[in-house]
Amino acid sequence: MPSHSRTARRLLAATASVLTLVTLTTACADFSAEDQVAEQGSFTAEPTMVPKAELPPPPPENPNGGPPPTGPCVDPDPSVIATCLASTSGVRPADSSGQTTYVAERTTGKIILSKRYGPQRTVATVPVDSSGDGGLIDFEMSPTYPEDQLIYALVTTGSDNRIVRIAPTGSVKPILTGIPKGATGNLGSISFTSRFELTVATGDAGDPAAAKNPGSLAGKIFTINPTVENPKPDVRASGLGSNVALCPSPGTDGQLYVADSGAAGDRLSLVGPKSLQTLWTWADRPGVTGCAVGDGSISVSLAKAKRIDTFIRPSAGSASIGEPSPQPTDKTYGAVGRMTTLGGVAMQIATVNKTTPGTTTKSFDDRVATFMAKPGDDLR
Fold first, then answer.
1. Which PROSITE patterns has this protein been placed in (predicted)?
2. Would you list the domain boundaries of the chain?
3. Domain spanning 79-379: which superfamily?
4. 0.85 exceeded by pTM
5. Parallel, antiparallel, or unpaired: how do β-strands 100-105 and 265-271 relate?
Protein backbone atom coordinates (compact mmCIF):
# COMPACT_ATOMS: atom_id res chain seq x y z
CA MET A 1 0.00 0.00 0.00
CA PRO A 2 1.53 3.36 -0.96
CA SER A 3 2.37 5.61 1.93
CA HIS A 4 0.90 9.08 1.94
CA SER A 5 1.44 9.66 5.64
CA ARG A 6 2.45 13.18 6.43
CA THR A 7 4.35 14.77 9.25
CA ALA A 8 2.40 18.01 9.35
CA ARG A 9 0.75 18.63 12.67
CA ARG A 10 -1.88 21.20 12.07
CA LEU A 11 -3.90 21.74 15.20
CA LEU A 12 -7.51 22.76 15.27
CA ALA A 13 -8.31 26.28 16.41
CA ALA A 14 -9.13 26.38 20.09
CA THR A 15 -12.53 26.74 21.54
CA ALA A 16 -11.96 30.27 22.65
CA SER A 17 -13.07 30.70 26.21
CA VAL A 18 -14.18 28.78 29.23
CA LEU A 19 -17.86 28.01 29.25
CA THR A 20 -20.13 29.62 31.80
CA LEU A 21 -21.26 27.23 34.52
CA VAL A 22 -24.73 25.95 33.85
CA THR A 23 -26.99 24.48 36.49
CA LEU A 24 -30.14 22.80 35.36
CA THR A 25 -32.44 20.35 37.09
CA THR A 26 -31.75 16.86 35.75
CA ALA A 27 -34.32 14.78 37.60
CA CYS A 28 -36.35 14.08 34.48
CA ALA A 29 -36.38 14.87 30.78
CA ASP A 30 -39.34 17.25 30.88
CA PHE A 31 -39.15 19.73 28.03
CA SER A 32 -42.75 20.95 28.24
CA ALA A 33 -41.83 24.36 29.61
CA GLU A 34 -39.19 24.91 26.95
CA ASP A 35 -41.55 23.75 24.23
CA GLN A 36 -44.16 26.30 25.29
CA VAL A 37 -42.00 29.31 26.12
CA ALA A 38 -38.24 29.76 25.71
CA GLU A 39 -37.58 33.38 26.37
CA GLN A 40 -33.93 33.10 27.26
CA GLY A 41 -31.72 32.61 24.25
CA SER A 42 -34.58 33.45 21.89
CA PHE A 43 -33.68 34.18 18.29
CA THR A 44 -32.52 37.75 17.74
CA ALA A 45 -30.29 39.40 15.17
CA GLU A 46 -27.75 37.02 13.67
CA PRO A 47 -24.40 37.23 15.45
CA THR A 48 -21.38 38.63 13.69
CA MET A 49 -18.51 36.25 13.00
CA VAL A 50 -15.43 37.17 14.99
CA PRO A 51 -11.96 35.60 14.96
CA LYS A 52 -11.41 32.97 17.63
CA ALA A 53 -8.71 33.91 20.10
CA GLU A 54 -6.04 31.39 21.04
CA LEU A 55 -6.16 30.13 24.60
CA PRO A 56 -2.90 30.34 26.55
CA PRO A 57 -0.93 27.09 26.80
CA PRO A 58 -2.04 24.81 29.64
CA PRO A 59 -0.08 25.07 32.89
CA PRO A 60 2.42 22.33 33.79
CA GLU A 61 0.96 19.21 35.38
CA ASN A 62 2.65 19.86 38.72
CA PRO A 63 3.54 23.57 38.96
CA ASN A 64 5.03 23.09 42.43
CA GLY A 65 7.34 20.34 41.27
CA GLY A 66 5.82 17.72 43.53
CA PRO A 67 4.90 14.13 42.66
CA PRO A 68 1.77 13.47 40.61
CA PRO A 69 -1.45 12.96 42.55
CA THR A 70 -2.58 9.50 43.54
CA GLY A 71 -5.97 7.88 43.90
CA PRO A 72 -8.48 5.73 42.03
CA CYS A 73 -9.12 8.40 39.38
CA VAL A 74 -5.46 8.86 38.39
CA ASP A 75 -4.40 7.05 35.21
CA PRO A 76 -0.59 6.93 34.96
CA ASP A 77 -0.79 7.09 31.16
CA PRO A 78 0.49 10.62 30.30
CA SER A 79 -1.85 10.78 27.29
CA VAL A 80 -4.98 10.62 29.46
CA ILE A 81 -6.55 14.03 30.13
CA ALA A 82 -9.90 13.09 31.73
CA THR A 83 -10.86 10.21 34.02
CA CYS A 84 -13.73 8.85 36.12
CA LEU A 85 -16.37 9.89 33.60
CA ALA A 86 -19.80 8.37 33.12
CA SER A 87 -20.26 6.73 29.73
CA THR A 88 -19.09 9.25 27.14
CA SER A 89 -20.42 10.51 23.83
CA GLY A 90 -19.19 13.63 22.02
CA VAL A 91 -15.70 15.01 22.62
CA ARG A 92 -14.14 18.33 21.52
CA PRO A 93 -10.65 19.76 22.13
CA ALA A 94 -10.67 22.77 24.45
CA ASP A 95 -7.27 24.16 23.47
CA SER A 96 -5.05 24.10 20.40
CA SER A 97 -2.63 21.58 21.89
CA GLY A 98 -5.37 19.10 22.79
CA GLN A 99 -4.28 18.95 26.44
CA THR A 100 -7.73 20.00 27.64
CA THR A 101 -11.05 18.65 26.50
CA TYR A 102 -14.79 19.14 26.51
CA VAL A 103 -16.50 15.75 26.81
CA ALA A 104 -20.16 14.77 27.07
CA GLU A 105 -21.44 12.18 29.49
CA ARG A 106 -24.24 10.48 27.58
CA THR A 107 -26.02 9.09 30.62
CA THR A 108 -25.90 12.20 32.85
CA GLY A 109 -26.48 14.95 30.28
CA LYS A 110 -23.35 16.81 31.42
CA ILE A 111 -20.67 18.51 29.32
CA ILE A 112 -17.42 18.51 31.28
CA LEU A 113 -14.23 20.53 30.90
CA SER A 114 -11.13 18.62 31.98
CA LYS A 115 -7.34 18.64 31.84
CA ARG A 116 -4.80 16.15 33.14
CA TYR A 117 -4.67 16.17 36.94
CA GLY A 118 -6.86 19.25 36.91
CA PRO A 119 -10.28 19.64 38.48
CA GLN A 120 -13.17 18.69 36.23
CA ARG A 121 -15.88 21.29 35.82
CA THR A 122 -19.42 20.76 34.56
CA VAL A 123 -20.01 23.60 32.14
CA ALA A 124 -23.48 22.60 30.90
CA THR A 125 -26.20 20.13 31.82
CA VAL A 126 -29.29 19.21 29.84
CA PRO A 127 -32.08 16.87 31.00
CA VAL A 128 -32.07 13.62 29.00
CA ASP A 129 -33.62 10.17 28.81
CA SER A 130 -30.58 7.89 28.92
CA SER A 131 -32.44 4.58 28.61
CA GLY A 132 -31.08 2.23 25.97
CA ASP A 133 -28.40 4.11 24.03
CA GLY A 134 -30.10 7.52 24.33
CA GLY A 135 -29.10 10.57 26.35
CA LEU A 136 -26.77 13.44 25.55
CA ILE A 137 -25.73 12.07 22.19
CA ASP A 138 -23.47 14.84 20.87
CA PHE A 139 -22.77 18.56 21.23
CA GLU A 140 -21.15 21.38 19.30
CA MET A 141 -20.12 24.93 20.13
CA SER A 142 -21.62 27.77 18.10
CA PRO A 143 -19.33 28.99 15.28
CA THR A 144 -19.52 32.38 17.04
CA TYR A 145 -19.06 30.93 20.50
CA PRO A 146 -16.65 33.64 21.72
CA GLU A 147 -19.47 36.13 21.16
CA ASP A 148 -22.66 34.26 22.02
CA GLN A 149 -21.52 31.40 24.32
CA LEU A 150 -24.12 29.05 22.80
CA ILE A 151 -23.91 25.25 22.74
CA TYR A 152 -25.99 23.01 20.47
CA ALA A 153 -26.75 19.41 21.41
CA LEU A 154 -28.45 16.29 20.07
CA VAL A 155 -30.38 14.76 22.97
CA THR A 156 -32.94 12.09 23.76
CA THR A 157 -36.08 13.01 25.68
CA GLY A 158 -38.94 10.83 26.87
CA SER A 159 -40.69 11.23 23.51
CA ASP A 160 -38.10 11.92 20.80
CA ASN A 161 -34.57 12.81 19.80
CA ARG A 162 -34.05 16.52 19.17
CA ILE A 163 -31.63 19.35 18.59
CA VAL A 164 -31.52 21.89 21.41
CA ARG A 165 -29.62 25.07 22.11
CA ILE A 166 -28.13 25.77 25.55
CA ALA A 167 -27.79 29.45 26.43
CA PRO A 168 -25.05 30.71 28.79
CA THR A 169 -27.78 31.30 31.38
CA GLY A 170 -28.61 27.59 31.30
CA SER A 171 -31.93 27.75 29.46
CA VAL A 172 -32.51 24.93 26.95
CA LYS A 173 -34.41 25.84 23.78
CA PRO A 174 -35.68 23.14 21.38
CA ILE A 175 -34.52 23.85 17.82
CA LEU A 176 -35.71 20.75 15.94
CA THR A 177 -37.98 18.15 17.55
CA GLY A 178 -39.60 14.93 16.40
CA ILE A 179 -36.52 12.94 15.38
CA PRO A 180 -37.59 9.31 15.96
CA LYS A 181 -36.52 7.63 19.17
CA GLY A 182 -36.13 3.89 19.71
CA ALA A 183 -35.02 1.44 22.35
CA THR A 184 -31.75 1.41 20.39
CA GLY A 185 -30.40 3.19 17.34
CA ASN A 186 -30.47 6.68 18.86
CA LEU A 187 -26.77 7.46 18.63
CA GLY A 188 -26.04 10.17 16.09
CA SER A 189 -23.76 13.12 15.55
CA ILE A 190 -23.77 16.87 14.82
CA SER A 191 -21.19 19.18 13.28
CA PHE A 192 -21.16 22.77 12.04
CA THR A 193 -20.11 22.62 8.40
CA SER A 194 -20.55 26.37 7.93
CA ARG A 195 -21.64 29.31 10.05
CA PHE A 196 -25.36 28.83 9.36
CA GLU A 197 -25.33 25.11 8.57
CA LEU A 198 -25.50 22.44 11.24
CA THR A 199 -25.14 18.94 9.81
CA VAL A 200 -27.05 16.28 11.73
CA ALA A 201 -26.65 12.50 11.44
CA THR A 202 -29.29 10.35 13.10
CA GLY A 203 -29.53 6.66 13.94
CA ASP A 204 -32.32 4.48 12.58
CA ALA A 205 -34.07 4.24 15.99
CA GLY A 206 -34.02 0.46 15.62
CA ASP A 207 -36.14 0.60 12.44
CA PRO A 208 -34.18 0.14 9.16
CA ALA A 209 -37.36 0.80 7.17
CA ALA A 210 -37.65 4.26 8.74
CA ALA A 211 -34.08 5.03 7.66
CA LYS A 212 -35.16 4.55 4.03
CA ASN A 213 -38.47 6.38 4.45
CA PRO A 214 -38.19 9.95 3.08
CA GLY A 215 -40.89 11.04 5.52
CA SER A 216 -38.83 10.10 8.58
CA LEU A 217 -35.76 11.81 10.05
CA ALA A 218 -34.43 8.47 11.34
CA GLY A 219 -31.26 7.17 9.68
CA LYS A 220 -30.59 10.41 7.81
CA ILE A 221 -27.91 13.01 7.28
CA PHE A 222 -29.44 16.46 6.91
CA THR A 223 -28.57 20.10 7.39
CA ILE A 224 -30.49 22.84 9.18
CA ASN A 225 -29.95 26.52 9.92
CA PRO A 226 -30.18 26.51 13.72
CA THR A 227 -30.40 30.30 13.96
CA VAL A 228 -33.95 30.45 12.57
CA GLU A 229 -37.28 29.37 13.99
CA ASN A 230 -38.57 25.97 12.81
CA PRO A 231 -35.65 25.14 10.48
CA LYS A 232 -36.45 22.89 7.53
CA PRO A 233 -34.12 19.87 7.24
CA ASP A 234 -32.37 19.42 3.89
CA VAL A 235 -31.68 15.68 3.59
CA ARG A 236 -28.30 14.72 2.13
CA ALA A 237 -28.33 10.94 2.68
CA SER A 238 -30.64 8.16 3.85
CA GLY A 239 -30.40 4.58 4.99
CA LEU A 240 -28.01 4.94 7.90
CA GLY A 241 -27.97 2.33 10.64
CA SER A 242 -26.98 2.72 14.28
CA ASN A 243 -24.13 4.48 16.11
CA VAL A 244 -23.77 7.10 13.39
CA ALA A 245 -20.66 9.28 13.69
CA LEU A 246 -19.78 12.25 11.47
CA CYS A 247 -16.15 13.12 10.84
CA PRO A 248 -15.57 16.35 8.92
CA SER A 249 -12.30 17.19 7.21
CA PRO A 250 -10.13 19.60 9.22
CA GLY A 251 -9.02 21.28 5.99
CA THR A 252 -10.74 23.54 3.50
CA ASP A 253 -11.88 20.86 1.04
CA GLY A 254 -15.28 20.50 2.73
CA GLN A 255 -15.20 16.70 2.69
CA LEU A 256 -17.46 14.98 5.20
CA TYR A 257 -17.26 11.32 6.18
CA VAL A 258 -19.59 9.15 8.25
CA ALA A 259 -19.24 5.82 10.03
CA ASP A 260 -22.25 3.68 10.92
CA SER A 261 -23.46 0.14 11.45
CA GLY A 262 -26.17 -0.81 8.96
CA ALA A 263 -27.82 -3.81 7.34
CA ALA A 264 -24.73 -4.61 5.24
CA GLY A 265 -22.35 -4.36 8.20
CA ASP A 266 -20.20 -1.63 9.67
CA ARG A 267 -19.01 0.89 7.11
CA LEU A 268 -17.16 4.13 6.40
CA SER A 269 -18.62 6.42 3.76
CA LEU A 270 -18.00 9.74 2.04
CA VAL A 271 -21.04 12.03 2.24
CA GLY A 272 -21.99 13.45 -1.15
CA PRO A 273 -24.51 16.20 -1.95
CA LYS A 274 -27.42 13.72 -1.88
CA SER A 275 -25.99 10.25 -1.27
CA LEU A 276 -23.30 8.18 0.41
CA GLN A 277 -20.25 6.67 -1.29
CA THR A 278 -19.11 3.63 0.66
CA LEU A 279 -15.33 3.52 1.11
CA TRP A 280 -14.93 0.45 3.36
CA THR A 281 -17.08 -2.16 5.07
CA TRP A 282 -16.45 -4.52 7.98
CA ALA A 283 -18.61 -7.58 7.43
CA ASP A 284 -17.62 -9.02 10.81
CA ARG A 285 -19.23 -6.01 12.57
CA PRO A 286 -16.40 -5.02 14.94
CA GLY A 287 -18.55 -2.23 16.39
CA VAL A 288 -18.07 1.12 14.64
CA THR A 289 -18.36 3.87 17.24
CA GLY A 290 -16.48 6.94 15.99
CA CYS A 291 -14.23 8.45 13.35
CA ALA A 292 -11.79 11.32 12.89
CA VAL A 293 -10.11 12.79 9.82
CA GLY A 294 -6.49 13.96 9.88
CA ASP A 295 -4.40 15.69 7.25
CA GLY A 296 -3.82 12.51 5.29
CA SER A 297 -5.70 9.83 7.18
CA ILE A 298 -9.11 8.67 8.38
CA SER A 299 -9.38 6.73 11.65
CA VAL A 300 -12.37 4.67 12.79
CA SER A 301 -12.87 3.38 16.33
CA LEU A 302 -14.21 -0.16 16.70
CA ALA A 303 -15.42 -0.63 20.26
CA LYS A 304 -16.32 -4.32 20.19
CA ALA A 305 -13.00 -5.23 18.56
CA LYS A 306 -11.14 -2.78 20.84
CA ARG A 307 -9.01 -1.25 18.12
CA ILE A 308 -8.72 1.80 15.86
CA ASP A 309 -8.38 1.26 12.10
CA THR A 310 -6.62 4.01 10.13
CA PHE A 311 -6.81 4.49 6.36
CA ILE A 312 -4.94 6.67 3.91
CA ARG A 313 -7.29 9.54 3.13
CA PRO A 314 -8.46 9.41 -0.52
CA SER A 315 -7.36 12.09 -2.94
CA ALA A 316 -9.91 14.33 -4.65
CA GLY A 317 -12.22 12.35 -6.93
CA SER A 318 -10.99 9.00 -5.60
CA ALA A 319 -12.70 6.37 -3.45
CA SER A 320 -9.53 4.38 -2.77
CA ILE A 321 -8.39 4.27 0.85
CA GLY A 322 -6.35 1.05 0.77
CA GLU A 323 -6.24 -1.50 3.54
CA PRO A 324 -6.70 -0.35 7.15
CA SER A 325 -3.79 -0.16 9.57
CA PRO A 326 -5.10 -1.54 12.90
CA GLN A 327 -3.99 -0.25 16.31
CA PRO A 328 -5.23 -2.37 19.25
CA THR A 329 -6.61 -0.45 22.22
CA ASP A 330 -7.57 -3.35 24.48
CA LYS A 331 -4.49 -3.08 26.73
CA THR A 332 -4.38 0.71 26.87
CA TYR A 333 -7.84 2.26 26.65
CA GLY A 334 -10.23 -0.63 26.10
CA ALA A 335 -13.31 0.24 24.04
CA VAL A 336 -13.11 3.60 22.26
CA GLY A 337 -16.22 5.55 21.29
CA ARG A 338 -16.24 9.02 19.74
CA MET A 339 -13.10 10.70 18.47
CA THR A 340 -12.17 14.18 17.26
CA THR A 341 -9.24 15.41 15.21
CA LEU A 342 -6.45 17.66 16.44
CA GLY A 343 -4.83 17.97 13.01
CA GLY A 344 -2.10 15.90 11.42
CA VAL A 345 -2.52 12.38 12.81
CA ALA A 346 -3.32 13.50 16.36
CA MET A 347 -6.78 13.14 17.87
CA GLN A 348 -8.69 12.94 21.13
CA ILE A 349 -10.51 9.70 21.91
CA ALA A 350 -13.20 8.98 24.51
CA THR A 351 -13.68 5.50 25.98
CA VAL A 352 -16.99 3.69 26.45
CA ASN A 353 -15.84 0.87 28.71
CA LYS A 354 -18.74 1.24 31.14
CA THR A 355 -21.35 0.45 28.49
CA THR A 356 -19.53 -1.93 26.12
CA PRO A 357 -20.40 -5.58 26.83
CA GLY A 358 -17.47 -7.84 27.62
CA THR A 359 -15.21 -4.94 28.65
CA THR A 360 -13.37 -4.84 31.96
CA THR A 361 -13.55 -1.40 33.55
CA LYS A 362 -10.86 0.23 35.66
CA SER A 363 -11.23 2.61 38.58
CA PHE A 364 -10.43 5.60 36.36
CA ASP A 365 -12.90 4.78 33.55
CA ASP A 366 -14.27 6.27 31.46
CA ARG A 367 -11.50 8.43 30.01
CA VAL A 368 -10.42 10.90 27.32
CA ALA A 369 -6.90 10.63 25.90
CA THR A 370 -4.79 12.08 23.13
CA PHE A 371 -3.92 9.51 20.48
CA MET A 372 -1.62 9.35 17.46
CA ALA A 373 -2.92 7.46 14.45
CA LYS A 374 -0.44 5.38 12.45
CA PRO A 375 -1.58 5.19 8.84
CA GLY A 376 0.11 3.07 6.22
CA ASP A 377 3.86 2.58 6.44
CA ASP A 378 4.01 4.19 9.90
CA LEU A 379 3.16 0.75 11.29
CA ARG A 380 6.02 -1.02 9.54
1. PROKAR_LIPOPROTEIN
2. 79-379
3. TolB, C-terminal domain (2.120.10.30)
4. no
5. unpaired
